[in-house]
Amino acid sequence: MSGAGKKVADVAFKASKSIDWDGMAKMIVSDEARKEFSSLRRAFDEVNSTLQTKFSQEPETIDWEYYRKGLGSRIVDSYKEYYDSVEIPKFVDKTTPEYKPKFDALLVELKEAEQKSLKESERLEKEIAEVQELKKKLSTMTADEYFEKHPELKQKFDDEIRNDYWGY
Questions:
Q1: Which end of the chain has a smaller Cβ tally under 10 Å, C or N?
Q2: CB atoms within 10 A of CB 166
Q3: Using an 8 Å Cβ cutoff, are 37 and 25 in contact?
Q4: Do residues 43 and 8 lie in contact, with contact meaning Cβ atoms separated by under 8 Å?
Q5: Per residue in 16-32, is it b (16+ CB within 10 Å) or e — as a string?
Q6: Quick check: 14 and 100 in contact, CB under 8 A?
Q7: pTM (predicted TM-score)
Q8: CA distance 166 to 136
Q9: Per-residue pLDDT tens for 33-91?
Q10: SS3 75
């Protein structure tokens, strides 16, 4: 097997081990997205399996003596000469250097978005807790207790009363 093919197979195998398929599956909410995710995973597994089986095996060596006995040395020698002259070009990765900076920039952007999302999630959790607490106390709460938690509303109502604005 050529070094490039083996390298591609090794990289694909390592990539498949580092993908958290279950973690990604937990984040999917819609049925359509689940179907697309399943087909993506199936396609990835098929390609990875093909890479592992096709490119990870060494080619069988040719028994030139066996063919010399049956066909004659002249024709076998010419085939051997042509076979030996075939050069398989080495794989030169030109794509990764081009897209690596873009990918790294996207990862940075992703981390920033994740941090924003976590902060927003914390804020929303606090707000939900406050609303649930307010919901429990609403039937027995006085206006003074409510305004104590929301002084900006008290200020707004006081300003409206002072300016003789009653909402109509």
A1: C
A2: 7
A3: yes
A4: no
A5: beeeeeeeeeeeeeeee
A6: no
A7: 0.38
A8: 30
A9: 889 989 998 998 888 888 777 766 777 888 889 988 888 889 999 999 999 898 878 87
A10: helix
